[in-house]
Amino acid sequence: MAISMIATSFNKVSAPAESGHRAAMLAPPIPLPALPSRAKPIPRPGLNAFVQLSGARFIITNMDSYDWRNVKMEVSGGSPSGGHTLDRPALRAGEVYTVEAIQFLDPAGNSFNPYQTRPRRFSICADTPNGFTCFVGRLDH
Prior knowledge:
Blueprint: H1 2-14, H2 16-19, E1 49-54, E2 57-62, E3 68-76, E4 84-91, E5 96-100, E6 121-128, E7 131-138
Antiparallel strand pairs: 1-2, 2-5, 3-4, 3-6, 6-7
């Protein structure tokens, strides 16, 4: 019964000429500013990597489902003067790489020696489908 009363009431409001009552006019719609376009999703930060030191070799695993391009790796003994770096064109998805520690060079061209300097931090930065991103990890002994 309530539904028919609402419908009847609605009919009376929508036809003011027939009922003799004036209907309130709604103001024209106010233009609203356009909503900002949906922000792009933030890519998952960081590379998924596993790095371990075995003797004088670093074992590096790309645990992502995509290749890393323009790879820049750095090993640091914890000193604020920077570390030893190594660049590679790519590390393929799911692959395990063994890299000799002496391949990492400081700005003066000196090789990293894990027997003289205890490696503390290892970082990998690369171009990915999510953009340029990095992995930074501590090497615990």
